[in-house]
Amino acid sequence: MKKINKEIVIDTIPIRDKDTYKNKMGRILCVGGTHEKGGAIIMSGLAALYSGAGLVTVATDQVNRTSLHTHAPEIMFIDMYESDNLIEAVKEKDVIVIGPGLGLTEKSREVLKTVLQSASGEQYLIIDADAITLLAEGKVKRETNGHCIFTPHLGEWQRLIGLNKNKLTVESNQQAQKDLQSIVVLKGSPTQVYVDSDVFENTTGNPSQATGGMGDTLTGILAGFIGQIPNVKQAILSAVFIHSYIADQLAETHYVTLPTQVIRELPKVMRNFADAK
Ligand SMILES: NC(=O)C1=CN([C@@H]2O[C@H](COP(=O)(O)OP(=O)(O)OC[C@H]3O[C@@H](n4cnc5c(N)ncnc54)[C@H](OP(=O)(O)O)[C@@H]3O)[C@@H](O)[C@H]2O)[C@@H](O)CC1
Ligand SMILES: Nc1ncnc2c1ncn2[C@@H]1O[C@H](COP(=O)(O)OP(=O)(O)O)[C@@H](O)[C@H]1O
Ligand SMILES: [Mg+2]
Q1: Which CATH superfamily is domain 2-13+21-275 in?
Q2: ipTM for the complex?
Q3: Residue 267 labeled ligand binder
Q4: pTM, two decimal places
Q5: Mean pLDDT, the chain, whole residue set
Q6: 52 secondary structure, DSSP code
Q7: 189 among the known binding-site residues?
Q8: Which of 68, 130, 137, 156 maximizes ligand 1 atoms within 8 Å of its Cβ, making it the mutation to test the pocket?
């Protein structure tokens, strides 16, 4: 198994062109967040913004709007239950995150269906959390033209592929990834990335990360990186590394690492990696 290390990130974080502008830095849509779990999609959107995405929109329940703008007026809002607006919003984006705090109701299923069906072959879909659970239930079919990146934790992975924890091996995970025709970021300690026929193991991460929202945050970093970095595989590996690298640094002096703390550190740590070239 290959290791995800610092060198990959140093290679990957680009020096920005002098004349670049927001449209070239990734147009991201993060979809999810019921009235109960708005925090999940706000963290996803914030992570995309702080990882350098040029334009970020969050599609969520109306009730989360004020909270979203209190955290970041830079982020645009749409109501995820207004399907015409959601279809339009999907069309204009480079990367779409679907699932954090999405819920498991009939309304959640409709949102997921709309996003999957509206995505085109040039777009990347990061499928996380409740979107994985809804697909595992089988009531929504995974019919999409978008490139899919699944980001399950172990519980979601078992649900999705229908295998018990004791039956999971690198080989069975690779087979499942092949069947899904997708990239899989299998989160854990450590996180593994299944991409093409390679398997990578992350070398950062620690137990201070065991706080709700840590995975929601990773989805935003993945989206932000894929939006800015042409080599998608390198972008994914770097996002996985940097998310937990920041947590490792914080854990030197903090017993717990909050997802929002990781988010705030992103621009500074990215500056350091870009300067290390
Ligand atoms: N602030 C917010 O708005 C937040 C909103 N959030 C949103 O909540 C939604 C539900 O997501 P979820 O992950 O909390 O619950 P769910 O899908 O039921 O999975 C749990 C099941 O899987 C199993 N399991 C096995 N291994 C596991 C592992 N390594 N890590 C975790 N679980 C593991 C576990 O087994 P057990 O621990 O019971 O043995 C249990 O049976 C989702 O939309 C998410 O985005 C959260 O992000 C929190 C912050
Ligand atoms: N003990 C640990 N060691 C390393 N990484 C961890 C540990 N606990 C949590 N994490 C990381 O935190 C994230 C948790 O993701 P997830 O369970 O989806 O959280 P949530 O849905 O609450 O946002 C993953 O990236 C995982 O690798
Ligand atoms: Mg999660």
Answers
A1: Ribokinase (3.40.1190.20)
A2: 0.99
A3: no
A4: 0.99
A5: 98
A6: T
A7: yes
A8: 156
